[in-house]
Design a protein that fits this description.
Keywords: ATP-binding, Kinase, Nucleotide-binding, Serine/threonine-protein kinase, Transferase. CIPK serine-threonine protein kinases interact with CBL proteins. Binding of a CBL protein to the regulatory NAF domain of CIPK protein lead to the activation of the kinase in a calcium-dependent manner. By secondary structure, the protein is an alpha+beta fold. The protein folds into 3 domains: about 100 residues, Phosphorylase Kinase, domain 1 (2-Layer Sandwich), CATH 3.30.200.20; about 170 residues, Transferase(Phosphotransferase) domain 1 (Transferase(Phosphotransferase), domain 1); about 120 residues, TATA-Binding Protein. The protein is built from 13 helices and 14 strands. A hairpin with a 2-residue loop joins strand 13 and strand 14. The two termini are about 25 Å apart.
C-alpha cells in the first residue's frame, strides 16, 4: 500500500495539476460531506473521469465505530456491480488519508435537477424510480440494505441515468440482531421510516422501500412529504403518516405512494409487488432482477473469482493496515488449496469448537466462510473461501487481534492447520 503521497493538494487550488499516486490528476472539488471530500479527477493513462473520495485517518481514530463503517462500506461497494450503483475501482492510502476511486457521475445530484426544475412529470419520475428500484432490488438480493436512500445520494451520469451512491450506513446480514432485525438508529430525518423511530427493531428492506417512497413523492410533488424545522414535530408526522398530495398527481400515483409510505412495515409494499404495480409498469419495465437464494447452513455456495476479484486481493484493495486502532493489529493472509470447501470449513469449525472461550459462527458476509471470536476480546478471525478454478480454492484469513496475547490461537492452532491444507 503506498504511504508517502503528499496530501497538501486537498487544501490547495483545484487547478494546481496535482497527480495522486501518478495515476489520477485532481481537477476540482465536487462535494463536501460531514466526514469526507469528493473530487473530480482524471485518469492520467486514459483520460477517463473518476471521482475520488478522501477520508481522514485522524477521524477514523477519533470517531467511535467509524473505522468499522469505512471497512464495511468498502467491502459492500466492492461487491456492487449494477448499472445503477456507483462502481468502486480502487482504494489507495497515504499516511493521512484513505481514497476511494469511484465511477464519476457527470450529471451531479438528482436533488439539483429537482430543485432547478421544481418538480418532475410522472413519466420522467417513473423512469428514475424504475432505475432506483432495480438498484435497490439488486442490493437486497445480495444481502445489502442501504439505510440512507435520499435525493442527495442519487447521482445522474452523462446519459441521464441514475446511480445510487454512499453506502456508508449500509448494513449486511452480519448486523442483524438475534431477532433477525436491525436495531441501529440511522438515516436522514425526513427519509427515516416510522419503525426506526419506534426503536423496536426493523427490516432493512422495508425501511429502504419507505425511503424510496419519500424520494418518489418529492420528485413529483416538488417538496418532501414529511418536513418540519422542529425534529420532534417531524418525527410525529412520520410516525402518524401525515402528509398531503398535491392536486396535480394522478390517482394511480396516490395509490402507489400510499403503499410505499404505509406506516406498517408488515403491510408495506414489497419489491416483488412494486415490480407488478400498474403505475410502476406503465410504459414498460424490462430490467431483470435476479434474486440470490438463501443458503442452508450445510450448503456452501462459492463465489468464482474473476479478474476484478484478483485485483481486489492486491494491495490496492487491502485496507487491513488502514483501519487499525493503536491497540490492535489487522492482518490478511491467503492460502491456495485443493481441498473441498466444505471439508476446510468443517475442520476450522471443529478446531474452534475444541478451544475454550472461542465463539464459532457462520460468516454472513461471505458465500463460504466462518468467523471465530475470542470471548476475552483478544481477536476476531474470519476464514473465507473463493473458487480460483475448478480444482483450486483460495482460503482468505482476515485477523484483528490485540498486539499482546491475541495471536496465540492463530500461530499455534489455526495457521498450522491451514498450512497443512495448502499446496506446497
Amino acid at each position: 500500500m503506498p504511504g508517502t503521497q503528499n496530501d497538501t493538494f486537498m487544501e490547495a487550488s483545484a487547478s494546481n495539476g496535482v497527480v495522486l499516486f501518478g495515476k489520477y490528476e485532481m481537477l476540482e472539488l465536487a462535494g463536501v460531506g460531514a466526514s469526507a471530500k469528493v473530487y473530480h479527477a482524471r485518469r492520467v493513462d486514459t483520460g477517463e473521469s473518476v471521482a475520488v473520495k478522501a477520508v481522514s485517518k485522524r477521524q477514523l481514530s477519533t470517531t467511535d465505530g467509524y473505522a468499522e463503517q469505512i471497512e464495511r462500506e468498502i467491502s459492500i461497494m466492492r461487491r456492487m456491480h449494477h448499472p445503477h450503483t456507483v462502481r468502486l475501482f480502487e482504494v489507495l492510502a497515504t499516511k493521512a488519508k484513505i481514497y476511494y476511486v469511484m465511477e464519476y457521475a457527470a450529471g451531479g445530484e438528482l436533488l439539483r435537477r429537482v430543485s432547478s426544475a421544481g418538480r418532475m412529470t410522472e413519466n420522467l419520475a417513473r423512469r428514475y424510480f424504475q432505475q432506483l428500484i432495480s438498484a435497490v432490488a439488486y442490493c437486497h438480493s445480495h444481502g445489502v440494505f442501504h439505510r440512507d436512500l435520499k435525493l442527495e445520494n442519487l447521482l445522474v451520469d452523462e446519459n441521464m441515468d441514475l446511480k445510487v451512491t454512499d453506502f456508508g450506513l449500509s448494513a449486511g446480514r452480519s448486523q442483524f440482531g438475534p431477532d433477525g432485525l436491525l436495531h441501529t438508529i440511522c438515516g436522514t430525518p425526513a427519509y427515516v421510516a416510522p419503525e426506526i423511530l419506534a426503536k423496536k427493531g426493523y427490516r432493512g428492506g422495508s425501511v429502504d422501500i419507505w425511503s424510496c417512497g419519500v424520494i418518489l413523492f418529492t420528485i413529483v410533488a416538488g417538496y418532501l412529504p414529511f418536513n418540519d424545522y422542529n425534529i420532534t414535530i417531524l418525527y410525529r408526522k412520520i410516525y402518524r403518516g401525515q402528509f398531503r398530495y398535491p392536486k396535480w398527481v394522478s390517482c394511480d400515483f396516490k395509490r402507489f405512494v400510499s403503499r410505499l409510505l404505509d406506516r406498517d412495515p408488515e403491510t408495506r409494499i414489497t419489491i416483488d409487488e412494486i415490480l407488478k404495480d400498474p403505475w410502476f409498469c406503465r410504459g414498460g419495465y424490462k430490467y431483470p432482477t435476479r434474486v440470490v437464494p438463501e443458503l442452508d447452513e450445510d450448503h456452501v455456495m462459492l463465489k468464482d473469482l474473476n479478474a476484478f476479484d484478483l485485483i481486489s486481493f492486491s494491495s490496492g484493495f487491502d485496507i487491513s493496515g488502514l483501519l487499525t486502532h493503536s491497540e490492535y493489529l489487522n492482518c490478511v493472509e491467503r492460502f491456495v488449496s485443493k481441498e473441498e470447501p466444505e471439508s476446510i470449513l468443517e475442520r476450522v469449525k471443529i478446531m474452534g469448537a475444541k478451544m475454550e472461550r472461542v465463539r464459532v459462527e457462520k460468516d454472513e458476509n461471505a458465500c463460504a466462510g466462518v468467523r471465530l471470536e475470542g470471548l476475552d476480546g483478544n481477536y476476531v478471525i474470519a476464514v473465507r473461501i473463493y473458487r480460483l478454478m475448478n480444482e483450486l480454492v483460495v482460503i482468505e484469513v482476515k485477523r484483528k487481534e490485540k498486539k499482546v496475547g491475541g495471536g496465540n490461537f492463530w500461530r499455534t492452532r489455526l495457521k498450522p492447520l491451514l498450512l497443512e491444507l495448502a499446496l506446497r
